[in-house]
Every structure is written in C-alpha cells, then in structure tokens.
Amino acid sequence: MAGLEELKKKLQPLFAAEIGPSMGLSMDPYDSYMVSNEGAVDLLSKSYGVYSFSEHGLEKRTSGILDDIDNSEQAYRCSSREMHVFGAIGCGSSSVVYKAIHITIHRILALKRINVFEKEKRQQLLNEVKTLCEAACFQGLVEFHGAFYTPESGQISIALEYVDGGSLADVLLLKKSVPEPILSHMVHKLLLALGYLHGERRLVHRDIKPANLLINLKGETKISDFGISAALNNSVAMCETFVGTVTYMSPERIQNESYSYSADIWSFGVAMFECATGKFPYSATEGAVNLMLQIMYDPSPSPPKDSFSPEFCSFIDACLHKDPSARPRADELLTHPFIKKYEKESVDLAAYVRKVFDPVQKLKDMADMLAVHYYLLFDGADGQWHYARSFYDETSVFRFSGKQFRGQNHIFPALTDIRRKLAGERPRQRLVHVVEKLHCRAHGDDAIAIRASGSFIIGNQFLICGKGVQAEGMPNIQESSLDLANKRMGTFQEQFIMEPGSSIGVFIITDQELYIQA
C-alpha cells in the first residue's frame, strides 16, 4: 500500500489534470458550430474566426458570424463531386484517410475525413485547417488543397498532398533503423519545417512522432497531422494543455506544467533516437503510468556511444534535456555538429527511400487509380467530361484508327467524337467500358504504363472485373448477375503512358493508343 501511495504522490500532477479541463483540447469559450439550411457548416472561434465548409469547398473569414458583408479572406474550391475516392490508407483517433483523385486536375490526394458533430474532433479539425491555411505553401509541410462538407455523412474532408513513400514509422517497420548519414539529411529537412512552425507560424505541433514525419519517393520530408497543434501569441508564450501522444511527450507536459516550443524538440529527439537505434528509448511494456514515471524521473536516454558518433549522441542529448530552457531551438539545431558532419557527403535520400519502399508497387497502385479515374470520366456525366482535356498537354500523342492526334486541342475533340458515337442517339443505346484485364507497371523512374482491355456493353456506368481497385460508388461486377458474354457489343484494347505533371501528385497522359473491334 505504501508503494501505491508513493506512486500516486508522484503522479499527483496527472491526477489533477484528469479532473480539470486541461485534459481535453484547449477550447475557446466562443467555439461553436452552426449548420445552415443550405448544407454548410460554420465552425466558429473567437481566436480563429469563421471557417465555413460547404459541399463546394472552404471559406475562411476573420470577422464574426453576424456580419452580413462578404468578408472572405481565403477560399478553397474543392467538392465531393470532384473526387474519385478509393480505399483507406490509414486511420487515427479522430479521422480516416483515403486515397483520392481530384477530377478537375487529375491530382492524387490523401482525403482525411472527420466527423464534425463530435466536439473534440471538431476542435482538432479547427486546429488542423487553421495551420494548413496559414502554412499552405511551405515545402516541409504536407500541402493543403482544400476541404469540403458532406451533409449526408456529417463529415468534413480535408484534401492533402499524397505522400507516395510513407512515414518514418513505416521505414522502421521495414528497415528497423536509419543510418546516421541518411538520418542527418532527414533531420536537416525536418528541422527547417519545425523551425518554420515555431518561428514563423508560432505553433507548437504537440504530436511529433515517427508516424507524423513523412517522406516521399523523391526524398522530400514532410511534417503532417496538425490536429492538436497550438498557436502561441509570442515567442515566450506557454501552453497549458495535456494532449498528444504520451509516448513522445516531454517531462514538463507529463507533469502538467506550462510548455512551449521546446516540448516539440524533446519529442523530435525521442523520435530521432528511435529512428537511429531502431528501439524506443523507454520500456513501454509495463503500462502508461510506468512509462510516464520513467520519462519524468529516469535520466534522459542517450544512444550507445560505442555504436553512434559523438555528434549524434550530442544531438540527442541536446534535445532530451530535462530542463526545457536548456533545449536548443529548431533553428539552432540546424548548426549542430551532427548536421554539419554529413552535410558535404553525397547522400541520395530518394535512392534510400526507393530501397525502403518498392517504387514499382507504389507506382502500380497509382496507375490502377488513374486508369479507373480515366474510364469513370469517359463513361461518366457529360458535365465532367470536359475535365479530361487537362489530362493532356501539347506534347501528348493519341493514336486511333490509323490516325495520330497531337496536343490537347486535337486529342480532346477526337476522344469526344469517339465518346459521342459510343453513347448513341438514345440512352438505351449507350455503350460503356467493362475492363476485363488491367495491367499497370512503372515506366522509367516516375512514369507509369497502363494496358487495359475488355468489352463494350449497353449500360450507364463503367465496370471493372476482378478484385482490383474500386472507386466509391462503383457497382461491384462480382455481385451483379451480368452475363458479359451475351451482353458484349464489341471489344477494346487501350494503352497509356502517364508521366508526372508540373504540380505534386498530378499526372499527364503523354501517349495513348486505342483499338476498337465490333
């Protein structure tokens, strides 16, 4: 019993935190939300202003809800009707993330869905959208492409850059640890982004961990997941909330003390320790209470000096000072000897990432989605077909029936004519694709090759056979009673080469060839 009382005494700050409001997210007393008759949701905050989400996108205003004038400051047009949504790629405590393609520009995205009617999730949504709006163009943060509300589900979707590699947590699952020279270059890039959050945006991320540190196939690192970030009014301001992943939480946060940017530095140090050694520096097998006691009262962990360079050990020691005021700022760590030690070494992060994650499989996954996206456009509503024009540029080539068309101004009319003839004069004559075989592969370093073949049937929607990729809303041909052999009106074979466009996640059809047989 005496041991239990001693344990409670040590954890008294945590018990006090559980009773008080600071265990939840810091809620502005004016935080609320309104649902209009037009199917829009206004998230209201005295600190943040008004974020108005509708089926057509997001509009941010700073003034109050009673103002009648148009005071929009930022607007992002992004609609659920402009998305082809595919399978889930991950989930967290407050959201599920899906792969999607933005129909208007053929950009592969990550679509994060959050239920707006749950209060804590709503505050996380406000935090994330505010951060993304304010730092939308910084290259070390995941790129923000807009958000929209879906009344039928009560969800708000945030459209984000699709990072085609994975997280550092994924790297550790596959490779166990990251070599020092590689890690040094990653750390340099991540510190630039963290320094931007702290210095320019005055934000404490509050959930730095390997799962929230991403890297793409080009070797570009990204910080993600700003759902529990907190804004500080000045460089010496403090937070007073107990949120985030306890595993990577600093001692002052666990003890429910005020904290600032240095709390992120601690979390970053723990994450980099884990990346280098392949092991979390504390024993987390005996429960959360024991873990928190270790973080508060055990000496700060340090990498084995016989396995790691003095510079790396010094870097971790600097990040993991128990005294928050002794931890360097992110911009100060950029000049640390661990960064300088490897900065002149020829380190190819892209090559490293492509050894960790199979780029062929990654590109094939994207090719599957892009193929389905193309046929959904071709066999879809007339009102969306015009978006197919931007799938081509002036160098694109399309071959059909012995003729060659070059450039979007010639290819799009040619395809439109083929589409019109397949549609027939009446709806009951309309022919649509049934893709029976779909082969996708990498083409060179970044391009993808697609070969599709199948049948034309009278119908109103594109179908794909087998257990391949499906977009939301597509009928499952395996669950239907379609007699394809008797319904077949013709066959087709088509092949594409798609290459990355000038914007992240956007692909262009550079070469296409179509054969149709009645």
From TrEMBL:
It is an enzyme of class 2 (transferase). Pfam families: Pkinase. Residues 366-515 form the NTF2 domain. The keyword Metal-binding does not apply. Keywords: ATP-binding, Kinase, Nucleotide-binding, Serine/threonine-protein kinase, Transferase. Signal peptide: none annotated. It catalyses: L-threonyl-[protein] + ATP = O-phospho-L-threonyl-[protein] + ADP + H(+); L-tyrosyl-[protein] + ATP = O-phospho-L-tyrosyl-[protein] + ADP + H(+); L-seryl-[protein] + ATP = O-phospho-L-seryl-[protein] + ADP + H(+). GO terms for biological process: response to other organism. Residues 83-339 form the Protein kinase domain. One of its GO terms (molecular function) is protein serine/threonine kinase activity. It comes from the Eukaryota. InterPro entries: Kinase-like_dom_sf, NTF2-like_dom_sf, Nuclear_transport_factor_2_euk, Prot_kinase_dom, Protein_kinase_ATP_BS, Ser/Thr_kinase_AS. ATP binds at residue 112. Its EC number is 2.7.12.2. Belongs to the protein kinase superfamily. STE Ser/Thr protein kinase family. MAP kinase kinase subfamily. PANTHER family: DUAL SPECIFICITY MITOGEN-ACTIVATED PROTEIN KINASE KINASE 5, DUAL SPECIFICITY MITOGEN-ACTIVATED PROTEIN KINASE KINASE 5-RELATED. This is mitogen-activated protein kinase kinase.
